[in-house]
Amino acid sequence: MGDTVTAGLARLSEPEREVLTAYAARAAWPAGFAIYQRGTPADGVFLVTRGRVVLRSRVRAGRGFVPWIATAGETFGSEGLAANSRYATDARADEEGETLFLSSTRFRAFVREQPQHALFLVNQLMAERTALLEKLRELTTLSVEQRLIATLLRLAGNNTFTREDGKIVLCTSRYRLLCELVGATRESVSLVLGRLTGEGLVERKGTSLIITPPVQLAERLDVSLGDAEVTLQFAEGSEQVVQ
Q1: Per-residue model confidence (pLDDT) at position 9
Q2: Pairing with 120, which of 11, 21, 89, 205 sits 20 to 30 Å away (CA)?
Q3: Are 107 and 22 in contact, with CB atoms under 8 Å apart?
Q4: What tens digit of pLDDT does each residue of 92-102 get?
Q5: What is the enclosing helix (H) or strand (E) of 172?
Q6: In this structure, are 129 and 21 located in the same domain?
Q7: How many CA atoms within 13 Å lie on the side-chain side of 18?
Q8: How many Å apart are CA 235 and CA 194, to the nearest integer?
């Protein structure tokens, strides 16, 4: 499947999270709670230990873009490790959960006193940065269908909205979140899901959508990316002839 969708992102292990507890502040968040807002002063970094935290950039009234959903073992708000920084997104608990918060002062102490364990945290931050850069590339190079399937594969990879058989279940609120993750309008996403329904990859049950297991999605994306590559090669060949 090329390098467009990587394997599930590595997450900080439970033992490594436990080491952090001596330096970090633990907090519990009810579902829907606003942890911070874009533009407010940022300090330190959060680590999710339970639940999900959605990072959202408001585009216009009623619309937004979601660059990241942090799940257990993943971080968010790391812009707070830079001097005089402000948060780049809103952060909201998508469900009841818990986090560890490492202020910039405590982060420096952690690096100084636990350098071996600090390397695991830095590695996690870099892996997440890489994932964000990959998503930025997808936004600028892939079609809505390709981005949609890539997003569904990521959701399946970290067990977000999945049931025991590995299928993703999308209710109305999750459907809106999916559109924000893809970075497309509801109309564009609906057209793609309609095509995927016709191919048997999506099943409608009442107001919910049941998405096929990741293996079939990956095969569909392979075909889509292969067609795009052939089209690109043809276009490049045509350009050469004209020159």
Answers
A1: 59
A2: 89
A3: no
A4: 999 999 999 99
A5: helix 172-182
A6: yes
A7: 3
A8: 29
